Amino acid sequence: MYIFYMTRSSINTYNESSLHNTLKIFYAEKFGGETEVECEGHIFDILCDDGHVIEIQTKNLSKLASKIKDALDKGHKVTLVYPLVYRTRIISTDEQGKLVSNRLSPKKGCIYDIFRELTGLTDILLNKKFTLEVITINMIEHRIRTQEPVQTSNKSRRFKRNWIKVNKRLDEILETRTFHKKKDYLSLLPENLPEEFCAKDISKANSSLARYAHLILWVLVRIPLIEQTRTQNKSRYYKIK
Predict the structure, then answer these.
(1) Scanning 92, 118, 159, 198, which has the fewest C-beta atoms within 10 Å of its C-beta?
(2) Residue 70: what pLDDT?
(3) Using omega within 30 degrees of 0 as the cis cutoff, is the peptide bond preceding 224 cis?
(4) Which residues of the chain have pLDDT under 70?
(5) What is the distance between the alpha carbons of residues 226 and 107, in angstroms, rounded to a whole number?
(6) What's the pLDDT at 203?
């Protein structure tokens, strides 16, 4: 476990990319690479002497699909680092920097959340030069309370709120999982599945996967690691290829 300590007084010294920047420095030191390197029409987060490209993306992994495909086509080994948030501590201050609240968000992430991020990357996940590294983290989110309800800069809010998120910071790294081979992705399926299985079988084998079952099957079919065998009573059945 890696722990990154932050003091309350340091809140205003970070910008919105603190989480990304911290991980970029961490992985640059880990692999001995240079950061923000322009190469072959791209600016890579990290580029090592041997041509190894490391990209860090905190959300919307599909936005990097074309960049990663191009790097792979040009012979680069590519590692995509995705920080999956397990718990978030929300620190709220007023506009003068005075602490208003410090609380844990009730939401908890889990490894199966990555399936939402993989929908746009299915055709490269088994490329021999590609590796997905998922790091489960705890994160600190800094919000500033405003006197009046406000909209975000990208107009993403359906309704205005009286706070604005200004920063995301790494608190600690809890676990690292590497996905490179077929078995790495298949390891996310419950162990006690029948030879032919459907979404209901996944939910039955592990009740916590009920909300992910259809998404898991959708992604694994397109990698492709499983194939459909039949349809029965409106349920699609699959087996491992």
Answers:
(1) 159
(2) 97
(3) yes
(4) 1-16
(5) 31
(6) 97
Confidence at residue 148, expressed as pLDDT on a 0 to 100 scale = 80
Gap between the Cα atoms of 176 and 196, Å rounded: 31
What confidence tens digit (pLDDT) does each residue in 88-147 have? 999 999 989 999 999 999 999 999 999 999 999 999 999 999 999 999 999 999 999 988
Tell me the CA distances in angstroms from 201 to 192, 206, 215, 221, 233, one per residue in order: 9, 9, 14, 16, 14
> How does DSSP classify residue 63?
G
Which element (helix H / strand E) includes 176?
strand 161-179
Which residues, 6 or more positions from 7, have their beta carbon under 8 angstroms from its beta carbon? none
Nearest-angstrom CA–CA distance, 178 and 137 = 15
Q: Which residues contact 152 (CB under 8 A, 6 or more apart)?
A: 164, 165
Q: Which of 18, 64, 62 is CA-nearest to residue 44? A: 64
Which structure tokens are listed for 84?
Answer: 């999956």
- Chain centroid to Cα 163, Å, comes to 25
**Rg of the chain over CA atoms, in angstroms?**
20
Q: Nearest Cα to 67, choosing from 21, 25, 120?
A: 120
What are the DSSP calls for 116-130, one per residue? Answer: HHSTTTTTTTT-TTE
For 20, list phi and psi in degrees, rounded to 5: -65, -45
| Cα torsion angle, 194, 199, 204, 208, sign | positive
Contact 84, 134 (CB under 8 A): yes
